[in-house]
Write a structure and sequence with these properties.
mainly alpha, globular
Length: about 350
């Protein structure tokens, strides 16, 4: 439970909320005051956005194992059971293990009989819309939302599959037993990015609305009774305990080390998916975000030159102080007047 609103009212309702809420394994209540006004609703919304990302990442791992590695549901159930005993220990990995093992009344694999069209209630979309408003690159969660939308276009996808036939996704290169470990690492690294983006959005909203969010405390609230409940959350709490001003989870020493260790397998996994024609929008977006976030120089200098060329939107220079803007008369026929600028 993620209550927000009047801080003065919290002590009056705290005993009620913390009695009825879910409890962590150590008995601590997974409920605390989040912040003034709509802070609680916003944090709950971001929780659901991260949930969209986690679910899509798991589905991409499942499709790679099913369509590229040629694994059966029972085998995949065992893989997810093994993953749930390690750093991916979580509610969603746990239920995926159970789903893959479940049999229909006649003994058939239940998950294979479910139509591949996903629904959504809207909280993922709200999270992405909030990120656009705040100018936060919530790319992984955005792709997770769009993946659900694409899945719902079943009739069109069937027609498109007939129009663009391709060979079976299974690859001889995928026969090695180490591919499941590579997929696990790609899933874990992408999961870190999902939370990093979600926390960046909460930090941006806190600055916009004047909230004093306890980021480590939020992770503790998500330990029990939540769809994204996982052992992973304890590491997030430790990260913010060590540095309350942490701007991005990727910069925490623990997560930095873990991502560095996973990058080779992450790249191999995304490359395998591309070569096999298997869509991995969330894993791919996570890797692109990581590459962009860790790039000292991006091609946005050319983009800004294009904006200045067609719209006189101005640019900053690497050899001048930040905050000083310039305009070039690129054709020799324009004027020296720059357009008014705005920042999204």
């Amino acid at each position: 439970m993620m209550p927000g609103g009047s801080k003065a009212a919290w002590p009056l309702v705290k005993p009620i909320f913390q009695t009825i809420c879910a409890k962590a394994e150590n008995g601590e209540p997974c409920c605390d005051w989040v912040g003034e006004n709509g802070a609680g609703h916003f944090v709950k919304m971001v929780h659901n956005g991260i949930e969209y990302g986690d679910m899509q990442l798991i589905c991409e791992a499942y499709q790679l194992m099913r369509d590229v590695l040629g694994m059966r549901a029972g085998e995949m159930s065992e893989i997810f059971a093994d993953w749930n005993r390690g750093e991916l220990d979580s509610y969603l990995i746990e239920i995926t293990r159970d789903i893959l093992a479940y049999r229909d009344a006649d003994g058939g694999v239940m998950v294979d009989r479910i139509l591949d069209t996903a629904g959504q209630k809207g909280t993922g979309k709200w999270t992405v819309a909030a990120a656009l408003d705040e100018g936060v690159p919530l790319t992984l969660i955005g792709e997770a939302v769009f993946a659900r939308s694409l899945s719902a276009m079943k009739a069109e996808r069937v027609a498109a599959a007939a129009a663009f036939p391709r060979a079976a996704a299974r690859s001889d290169a995928a026969d090695s037993a180490d591919w499941t470990e590579a997929i696990r690492q790609a899933l874990y690294a992408s999961k870190i990015v999902s939370y990093a983006q979600g926390y960046s959005l909460m930090r941006a909203a806190a600055n916009t609305y004047g909230w004093d969010l306890n980021y480590g405390g939020i992770a503790l609230m998500w330990r029990g009774g939540c769809i994204i409940r996982s052992a992973f959350l304890g590491r997030i709490k430790e990260a913010f305990d060590q540095n309350p001003a942490l701007s991005n989870l990727l910069l925490d020493p623990y997560f930095t080390d873990r991502v560095k260790a996973c990058v080779p397998a992450w790249r191999r996994t995304v490359s395998l998916a591309v070569q096999a024609g298997v869509p991995v929008p969330a894993m791919g977006a996570a890797l692109s975000y990581f590459d962009g976030y860790t790039s000292e120089r991006l091609p946005a200098n050319l983009l800004q030159a294009q904006r200045d060329y067609f719209g006189a939107h101005t640019y900053e220079r690497v050899d001048r102080p930040r905050g000083v803007f310039f305009h070039t008369n690129w054709t020799g026929e324009g004027g020296d007047t720059a357009a008014s600028t705005y920042n999204v």
